[in-house]
Write a structure and sequence with these properties.
Layout (H helix, E strand, L loop, with lengths): L27 H13 L4 H10 L7 H35 L5 H26 L3
Helix pairs in contact: 1-2, 3-4
Length: 130
């Protein structure tokens, strides 16, 4: 899988070679404001400007990204917990030769459904970035 380059959010294989330039005249104050906003989003000025121009002046809020990353960390924890539970069930099935009742599996399957929903939500927040 292609690796995303820092700053542009695009995999190398999907990046088009950029050969064109665009100059903009700014006041010192305007440049300072743009540099500050770029820094707030954790972007270089060129990447911030490109995203703003190509996306009609909209960039995902870094707080939304932080929330999505926190949600994914929570999902990683829940996924490990579910993996442990499934491993214990598989071990018991191997030892006893019987498959657990549906009542044992239902809560785990419900949790997996909830984790899947959370993953989709977190990915949608992150994918909202160009």
């Amino acid at each position: 899988m292609a690796k995303a380059r820092p700053g542009d959010g695009m995999p190398r294989s999907n990046r088009r070679r950029r050969t064109e330039t665009l100059s903009v005249r700014l006041t010192t104050e305007e440049r300072g404001q743009i540099e500050q906003r770029a820094a707030e989003f954790g972007l270089k000025v060129r990447d911030y400007g490109r995203r703003m121009m190509l996306n009609g002046g909209e960039i995902a809020n870094p707080k939304d990204r932080d929330a999505a990353i926190a949600a994914l960390a929570k999902l990683a924890f829940q996924t490990r917990r579910l993996g442990v539970s499934l491993n214990q069930i598989a071990h018991a099935a191997n030892v006893t030769g019987s498959v657990p009742l549906a009542a044992t599996l239902r809560p785990i399957l419900d949790d997996l459904g909830a984790v899947t929903t959370l993953i989709k939500s977190a990915l949608a927040q992150i994918e909202g970035e160009p």
